[in-house]
Amino acid sequence: MSFDSLGLSPALLKALADKNFTQSYPIQQEAIPAILKKRDVLGIAKTGSGKTASYVLPILMNLQGKTVTKNRHVNVLVLVPTRELAMQVSEVFITFGAVLPDRVKTMAVFGGVSINPQMMALQGVNVLVATPGRLLELVESKAVHLSEIETLVLDEADKMLNLGFREEMSLIFKLLPRKRQNLLFSATLNDDVTRIHQIILQNPIVIKIEEEVDTFDLISQLGYFVSEEKKGPLLRYLIKTNDMKQVLVFADSVYKVDNISDKLRKNGIKAAAIHSKKSQGARTEALSKFKSGEIRVLVATDLISRGIDIQFLPYVINYELPRSPKDYIHRIGRTGRAENPGEAISLISLEEQHHFRVIQKKMGKWVTMIDSDKLDLQGF
């Protein structure tokens, strides 16, 4: 279905067309008209299903003609679990807000950086995208007030609960006006998400986009048997011989992530590491360069990767296996998204072979394996 029938303005339709977004996704087809009508929405859809645009576009439409009624009182609050996601969501608001006749000021706030510049920049903000902890710090400092919120969005609610933001979210809910529009989006509908849904949503439109959990039609999976000491040369061999661009590599520890990226650079492959020990500025720069193609490889830990949202990511490589099959599926699900094919490669040491068999059994799909001993890794 095209966007033309969803009630969006000509300016937004042109902006979507300019970015080659011609066909809407299922969650957008249901959420956009409901949000335009100021209905509460519960949207359950996997990452990469188009949910960000499903609320950004109608919220921007509803804000037309609105102004901030009081200084430092925002109209829209979007709560997200990570800094990376906060920046990405705010970028979408800024991109599409720029084409509308009435100015909409959007700002992202998160921890890990100085609070003072954020405090000063909050004047005149319409849309605030925030992580819960930093938002409460700003409220306590009276840098922002939540009493005029018209629309509340909880994006990736399941991850916020999993990351321990339950108490902060409860405190934030108490600061909001009773009458408001509530939009809750989550990849899963577990007991915790259901409980929050029951607390904050009023007669919501429920949208559940069923995920095909047992098929990975757009993801080509391949595994390599390799000794631990040859994983580095094999990784570099695969990237160079296949001329891979935009490769997301997963490793388990901060030390391993740094080590892998260092060796890639020493071997002439532009790479960057992204993990919790990096400064926010370094993480933002690495992600931006990776998206633009300035660097070929981004090496990441699982937690940080949850904020990496790239629509056309072609390659994911598991340098080390995650602990659970669920995390494995989350990792490889970063590629093969938005109807674009991708390739997922796993480097499997002798010690990991049993665990990989368990993952494949849980996934319901067996991965073709190649013995790396047959490859000439000399010089890599």
Secondary-structure topology with pairs:
Blueprint: H1 10-18, H2 26-36, E1 41-44, H3 51-63, E2 76-79, H4 83-97, E3 106-109, H5 115-121, E4 127-130, H6 132-140, E5 151-155, H7 157-162, H8 166-175, E6 181-186, H9 191-200, E7 205-208, E8 219-225, H10 231-241, E9 247-250, H11 254-266, E10 271-274, H12 280-292, E11 297-300, H13 302-305, E12 315-318, H14 325-332, E13 342-348, H15 353-363, E14 368-371
Parallel strand pairs: 1-6, 1-7, 2-4, 2-5, 3-4, 5-6, 8-13, 8-14, 9-11, 9-12, 10-11, 12-13
Helix pairs in contact: 2-3, 3-4, 6-8, 14-15
What report would you give on this structure?
The mean pLDDT is 88. The protein starts with 9 loop residues before the first helix and ends in a 9-residue tail after the last strand. It is globular. The longest helix is centred in the N-terminal third of the chain and has 15 residues. Helix 2 packs parallel to helix 3. By secondary structure, it is an alpha/beta fold. The protein has 2 domains: 206 residues, Rossmann fold (3-Layer(aba) Sandwich); 156 residues, Rossmann fold (3-Layer(aba) Sandwich), CATH 3.40.50.300. Helix 5 links the parallel strand 3 and strand 4. The strands form 2 sheets. It has a 7-stranded parallel sheet, with helices on both faces. It has a 7-stranded parallel sheet with strand order 10-11-9-12-13-8-14, sandwiched between helices.
